[in-house]
Amino acid sequence: MKTVAGIIPFKAKIGQGAEVARLIAAALPHVEAESGTPLWLVLHSNADPDTVFLVDLFDSADAREAHLSGKAAEQIFATIPPLLEIEPMIHPADLIARKGG
């Protein structure tokens, strides 16, 4: 089975990066209920404190689509847009190499 991914960089307004990271991380309980999402990471950049990355791995493209239309995405996109500098772009991707997780 091919593992697929999703990567979303979020560019927060100046000084809002930590709050954006917190609001995205608050969706974790919804992600934990998803059987097709084995790995979900919220990364707060050290190089740019107003950038947050959301990285997901999925069991299939169908699982990725279910996640993107699920409760976690709904919660995230209902809370963070006023804190963002630009609209986030979702980058669907295929996993090429992996260690752990």
UniProtKB/TrEMBL annotation:
<keyword id="KW-0560">Oxidoreductase</keyword>
<dbReference type="GO" id="GO:0004497">
    <property type="term" value="F:monooxygenase activity"/>
</dbReference>
<keyword id="KW-0503">Monooxygenase</keyword>
<dbReference type="Pfam" id="PF03992">
    <property type="entry name" value="ABM"/>
</dbReference>
<dbReference type="InterPro" id="IPR011008">
    <property type="entry name" value="Dimeric_a/b-barrel"/>
</dbReference>
<protein>
    <submittedName>
        <fullName>Quinol monooxygenase</fullName>
        <ecNumber>1.-.-.-</ecNumber>
    </submittedName>
</protein>
<dbReference type="InterPro" id="IPR007138">
    <property type="entry name" value="ABM_dom"/>
</dbReference>
<feature type="domain" description="ABM">
    <location>
        <begin position="7"/>
        <end position="76"/>
    </location>
</feature>
